[in-house]
Amino acid sequence: MAYRIGEVSKLLGLPVETIRYYEKEQIIAPKRQENSDYRTYETWDIFFLMECMRYRSFDISLKDISKMLHNDSLDFFVERIGFKQQVIDEKLRYYQMLERKISAYKDKLASLPYNVGCYWFVNTPEYRYFTYVRREDGDHYGEVEEKPLFPHWLKQIPFVEFTHHISFADIADPRIDRDAWGLCVESADAALLNLPLNAEVQIRPASLCLCTVMDLGDYGNLTLRQFDPLVTYIRDHGIVPEGDIIGKILTRVHADGKMHRYIEYTIPVRK
């Protein structure tokens, strides 16, 4: 039985333009009527279009589908399907990582009002990080350094996080008011994402950390004196710091006509 393109479109739910494009990509080869541009489609053409629809649902390209339908041996057919399975597995792994990241982030945001100004201990994994801009006074920053890794790491947000870096020795000295901002990622995620590394990337080992959430307020308010309560808490409880402070930016929100910058800080301590 012969079908017009409109009939095929209605039968398969494919736009006429799509069917014509599939013909152009040599998925099907309908017959042309003599002395006319009209094409007629046979049942066999419909079978090919249905198979094409199946392989497109696997996100296989039309070029590869044409080869699979008209040229490939079974071995090549299996190879193409196997490659597509690998692509899907990689996407699935990525979205599983993303789901865990978003879930953990949502929990941090939900508990944020209860954690500001509080202190607790947490075991943190190994991190890799580098800094790209430094501050010497207030919110006056130096030039953002051109780091070779910067654009590559930014592509892997949210697994790569924006971070605030402070020396514990600096916050303990009231004469000093300097810090840095950088990018940080869990070492395990860096490996899974094949994140590029170089000699500028530093490592913070897995460690027991003292943790707190702080509100740094609006732009221009930042000063290391905001960390005086943390220094007091550490000294009053006989805690021995064993590394510098890394803060992960949680969110910026507005309330009571003000901007609030919430950052979760961790500092490695002696067990």
TrEMBL record:
Keyword entries, A-Z: DNA-binding, Transcription, Transcription regulation
Cross-referenced InterPro entries: DNA-bd_dom_put_sf (IPR009061), MerR-type_HTH_dom (IPR000551), MerR_fam (IPR047057)
Entries under PROSITE patterns matching the protein: HTH_MERR_2
Name of protein: MerR family transcriptional regulator
CDD domains according to UniProt: HTH_MerR-like (cd00592)
UniProt key word Signal: no
Ribonucleoprotein is among the record's keywords: no
Annotated organism of origin: Acetobacterium wieringae
Signal peptide residue numbers: none
Stretches assigned to the HTH merR-type domain: 2-71
